[in-house]
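Now for a typical sample entry:
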Amino acid sequence: MENSLKNMALSLFIITLISATAVGMAYRVTKEPIALSKAAQKTAALAQVLPEFDNDPDAEKQTLDMEGIPVTIYHAKKGNETVGYAVETATKQGFSGDIHLMVGFLPDGKIHNIQVLQHSETPGLGSKIADPNNALVVVFRGNSPADLQMSVRRDGGDFDAITASTISSRAYIDAVERGFRAMRQIISAAEHQKEESHE
């Protein structure tokens, strides 16, 4: 009986060791391709949401914590002139989980374009937030969040919710608004620093 228990414990230990080793090896093998894929996705998103630029926005990025959500701002330039800011933002209010967006702002705060980076919304319903010309992004393009009522019409705002996807629509707007606030903080801090250096 004692030998049987020892054999079972040993077998269980060996199986666990083999499984853990296999998972570790799979992680090592896939880690770099996943990182490269994410980097390529980010580069494509930057090009998609910003006007033409010739610097490396990734080299001039800053990350802020906004209500426990990291928001990253990428500074895009052409020559020495700022052409826009890409903001990697997110919300926890999606119907099926977090939603991550890349929002491109022009220097005057107007939105150039928006791209969904990641979501788990319901296929055919909330997933429509990822459509490049969804009802929300059409309103955002060419407008500044400062000039919009940042909510769906049902809540008194300027946005028609995507059909049968009010929660996803609210989440999308929430992510854009968070990104806008983060960008304004970064610009305000940079302007303050510039004023201090001229004193």
The chain has three helices and five strands.
